[in-house]
């Protein structure tokens, strides 16, 4: 049959139509390689190349503990492992107000969301929304803008508050505000009569520090994504991503992914975006420098300016420490770290239920967007992520996900209804690592079923397939997601 896992699996979601699933039917047995049947004695189960537990190729780590997301790539050796741990220390390090005795780590704020990266990406995992009405946003943030396009083609900052709401300030600098989330429960039912409830969020910003927000302000609340496998995602060749795009839906399958194009500060031109919930950052280096500037208030060679707006007087005169505050070496170390965090291997790939769920995932066309398999290209200086067969379950493209998930806030070429397909590798371990099950960009979904039920737009047919499934099939699909 097929020689390359990558070719076969990439083709599955795009070229072939939905597969009819009749587990146990003789038809499926035809697909099974005879020797495999003999070996495992399961004649009714098709063995797909994707029953591959090695999500990150040679870099896969087999760890299902609370530290599952914190490991270096398994193929990272010798002094390069030491470099990983240097970057890890910068990622965990708390920044303090300038001037401080440790000048390497001062310059916090004046406005900031958190004092260290790992506050939001706890154990290199995921953030979550507040669990009580009076709890502050601890591991998520709100992006802001007003209609219009910046000189670089990006969002137009809100005049008084900029592009992000910083909910903390150093001594003497008022915080920008506090985000409050409330939810309304909405009931629904599966085709078999079983009921569910989805909670629809609404956001309000209170205790505004610098006057009212512009009346036409647009807000995009986002949780911190997990940090696993990001170097491998950056190593997917641009041509491969572009080849998956189908902006005008020429093949008529209702799915029309397209790349975001975002400003690359160092290259001074627009390039394909890959990181962030709207693929709004072009590279890990820029994403990381952007996080230092926006989330912690730490300037760097890429972003040398403190993020104070014209009306934020106390912010503009506050002590800042060295300029830039982040030495190039530290940015390099943390960027090496984000390039070399591993992905945990899959669990239970041989379970019959998981395999059935895997086929339902194909049948419901989840894999049209959550593309299972890629082969990475060659990256200079990063042999560990080069030429690897990986299973990230994303196409890194933007999709219209319908009005219910829309934030209404464009981000470079991403419209207010578009989001980047979320990578699903490792997602079954979020509960173990972060002790919660909140999913989607703003954490509104409480588990896998709700996440699927919120899918709309280009994914409406996938959602309908899920709603139509009997309970046993829904459970199998979720069991498959748990195994990732
Ligand atoms: C206040 C919480 C918060 C802090 C602190 C924070 N992040 Fe993030 N991080 C986020 C959010 C939210 C996103 C998604 C951003 C978006 O969609 O625009 C993100 C995205 C990322 C991504 C891209 C992940 C992906 O899957 O696309 C990387 C890499 C990253 N952050 C690194 C860092 C680093 C390095 C630091 C420390 C300098 C840091 N972050 C600090 C909240 C945070
Ligand atoms: C049209 C493309 C598309 C299809 C088809 C699709 N998804 Fe998604 N999926 C997305 C996007 C985009 C997101 C991120 C949406 C957001 O956060 O608002 C997402 C998010 C998710 C999440 C949450 C991930 C996270 O990190 O929070 C899960 C789980 C998921 N999808 C599973 C599925 C399953 C199962 C199916 C099939 C029943 C499916 N998806 C079909 C595009 C798609
Ligand atoms: Ca600063
Ligand atoms: Ca701000
Ligand atoms: Ca299409």
How are the secondary structure elements laid out?
Elements: H1 5-15, H2 26-29, H3 34-40, H4 79-92, E1 111-112, H5 117-120, E2 140-149, E3 155-156, E4 168-169, E5 178-189, E6 195-206, E7 218-223, H6 230-234, H7 238-244, E8 261-264, E9 269-272, H8 284-296, H9 313-317, H10 328-340, H11 352-363, E10 374-375, E11 389-390, E12 398-400, E13 418-420, H12 430-434, E14 438-439, E15 445-446, H13 448-454, H14 460-468, H15 471-482
The chain binds heme C (HEC) (2 copies) and calcium ion (CA) (3 copies).
Describe the structure.
With 484 residues, the chain is an alpha+beta fold. It has two domains: 5-73 and 342-482, no CATH class; 93-225 and 282-337, no CATH class. The chain has helices at 5-15, 26-29, 34-40, 79-92, 117-120, 230-234, 238-244, 284-296, 313-317, 328-340, 352-363, 430-434, 448-454, 460-468, 471-482, and strands at 111-112, 140-149, 155-156, 168-169, 178-189, 195-206, 218-223, 261-264, 269-272, 374-375, 389-390, 398-400, 418-420, 438-439, 445-446. A hairpin with a 5-residue loop joins strand 14 and strand 15. Helix 4 (79-92) packs across helix 10 and helix 11 (352-363) crosses helix 15 (471-482). The radius of gyration is 23 Å and the shape is globular. Bound molecules: heme C (2 copies) and calcium ion (3 copies). One calcium ion (CA) binds next to loops.
